Amino acid sequence: VATRYEWISATTDYGTDDGFVAACVGVIARLAPHARVIDVTHTVPPGDIRRGATVLAHSVHYLPAAVHLAVVDPGVGTSRRGLAIVAGDSTLVGPDNGLLLPAADELGGVSAAYELAEPAYWLPTVSHTFHGRDVFAPVTAHLAAGADPAALGPALDVAGLVRLPPPRVDVRPAGLTAEVLTVDRFGNVQLAARTSDLASAGIRLGDPVTLTPGDAVTLTPGDPVTPSPGDPDPPATAVVGNTFADVEAGALVVLVDSAGHVAIAVNAGSAAARLATRPGAAVSLGLLRR
Amino acid sequence: VATRYEWISATTDYGTDDGFVAACVGVIARLAPHARVIDVTHTVPPGDIRRGATVLAHSVHYLPAAVHLAVVDPGVGTSRRGLAIVAGDSTLVGPDNGLLLPAADELGGVSAAYELAEPAYWLPTVSHTFHGRDVFAPVTAHLAAGADPAALGPALDVAGLVRLPPPRVDVRPAGLTAEVLTVDRFGNVQLAARTSDLASAGIRLGDPVTLTPGDAVTLTPGDPVTPSPGDPDPPATAVVGNTFADVEAGALVVLVDSAGHVAIAVNAGSAAARLATRPGAAVSLGLLRR
Amino acid sequence: VATRYEWISATTDYGTDDGFVAACVGVIARLAPHARVIDVTHTVPPGDIRRGATVLAHSVHYLPAAVHLAVVDPGVGTSRRGLAIVAGDSTLVGPDNGLLLPAADELGGVSAAYELAEPAYWLPTVSHTFHGRDVFAPVTAHLAAGADPAALGPALDVAGLVRLPPPRVDVRPAGLTAEVLTVDRFGNVQLAARTSDLASAGIRLGDPVTLTPGDAVTLTPGDPVTPSPGDPDPPATAVVGNTFADVEAGALVVLVDSAGHVAIAVNAGSAAARLATRPGAAVSLGLLRR
Q1: Among A99, A101, A95, A58, which Cα is nearest to A79's?
Q2: A90-115 pLDDT, tens per residue?
Q3: Do C129 and B7 touch (CB under 8 A)?
Q4: pLDDT at residue B273 tops 60
Q5: What is the least distance, in Å, from the CA of A117 to any CA of chain B?
Q6: Which of B48, B119, C193, C289 has the most Cβ atoms closer than 10 angstroms to its Cβ?
Q7: Which of B63, B243, B244 sits opposite C22 (nearest CB)?
Q8: Given an 8 Å threshold on Cβ–Cβ distance, is A258 in contact with B130?
């Protein structure tokens, strides 16, 4: 079924120093001049599919119905497939490398997926290294202009799409260990754990907790976290609160962030610097005696 | 009185690496799809209210009539108030922490101010840590769509709004000492002093001057500036000119910048690096014998 | 002949931390509210005319018909001229310092050029240091709204416009030496050489090559490249391929990039870091025995 879209969102690792984003936006402006583009981010670390997927998934609920163009594509020019995924009121376009599915899940799940196989929807000449401009942007524009996703190429089985391994969360009585999903501009450390995980561990608002940063994630449920050389000794302590200013300036607070994840913050400071942690590492929370 | 706005401007410390700005813009696109957003900046240093206020105040005269959304909000989730301020042909929305008033002054002064107290204009669920998305962006969109500011909450006395202390300027015969207001991308050092201060000090185009960077601002009028360890010795010298190329490459020039402030520049170089100064520090100008 | 433009593109070295871009966009919004602005980049290194010219020239083919505003203007406030250049379906606006001509060439060459001499198309007050806001943005907006370029000032002889020296390329049997034109966000090293230069040197897909980074460009055709202290010893080797993943992760590949230039890349890494090179330096490619 074809829909016309007023809005397009764009998520890439192209940066804004070069003209890569402008070339994609220019292609869209030529083919779908009615559409308006909302930039999600263009500064995903080069090739960091997980990060791109996370930022888009956290934003998409607040965006209007749109064609969501996402390109973090280290396999460009290889046999990796290009995709259009219909999910909820939107369509997602990008490479088949796990980038799109978390956002599709947030939109209510994949209702159809198509391989980009029909060159009529691409630029006449396709480079080996810039499918964002030559394939994904024109497909995005054609979809915004009302093209039927089914015309883009063969339908794909959802189970066959590349999916990133889920980030690890290990909940236990009075504690949890979870992968760091993102670190934001303020240095807030967002864990893969969610509100319900904190509740399952029996940790409540106002509780004091210890924070133990660990090594890169090789967690299996129940594994102990091996402290890394940069760990504070003794472990850092924090309080479970609602917002940054629930603790004094410079103190650690554990809170549920605006995406519904458990996050560690320092009021007027950087928790990532304090804990010497980063995306992909593990952090362990343990309830201190109340 | 309600007005419909075609334009919205946005000034935040959210950065563009995360999806925070996109979430705000998405909320606006859903509620006021007719409105177009002009980004002022999103890279205010985290929590730096003075910097956000200065950038917005310097830009606002050149922007069209708009709802100006500004969020630098270290007190998010506490009892600090949210505001809508009517000023000139525009309305400003953001926290009551001093961020909005310099721009309101540039627009001709506050004609009305309202506390954001009516949840009907917010998102249905309000997080503790992201009022930009959940409160300020939807209020901005409703205003752009024609909502009456008076409907947002109780009217406030302008004298009761939080106002940043004015940056210090101390003019004396043949010299002045002023706080560094901003350092721009080119390393130009903008002082809080204005054209009239230079004139009051009797410093004129073509005059040679000494430049003495000082410590962080604890100035009271007439205080001497204590040289900081990084100071050049003897003091740097400059000439008062009109533009960068009035001096040779690498030389210092004092000029009136495009915002009407006294600024120190190095032609094809960085004055901030040369003087080892930064926003909030003091710089003293002294007239050399003509 | 006057045309109305729906689109404006913007290329500057203003950065996005300050409000400089917002002021220009605001001026455009007031004078040509119908026009939409596509950002090419605002993070050209301060005063780097070559870099600004290159990014715009590589993007312009993919942009819609537009007024292309470009400001990298170290001579602002001096006697350097402002220009409007008609080329193909577009008009370019900016300083006469070489910034605009490479893009004009991409658009099919200059069909007319005018000096910006008529203050009726500028802001009422023109600062000495911010002609982007006070001259170039309002001229851009007036052109988008349908002003005749010939009304902006006297026609200029194309041969008299400032043109950057062409980047050096020296092709020889089984090798070439070329200036590094750009390094992109991924660390890909784009040479001034093009596909045809590779063919002229007799270097073909699948060939192994040596890579020798050299000093800053002082090349005359036939000059040997002096190895710089940071050079790998023995020289780095690469293979000529189509895309990044044609070599294993961490290996060097030479390819034709999306702008048609010869480029050196590291799969999942930075070739600029590997070769310790930068824009303006030379790199020499030599065919290894097949």
Answers
A1: A95
A2: 999 999 999 999 999 999 999 999 99
A3: no
A4: yes
A5: 30
A6: C193
A7: B63
A8: yes
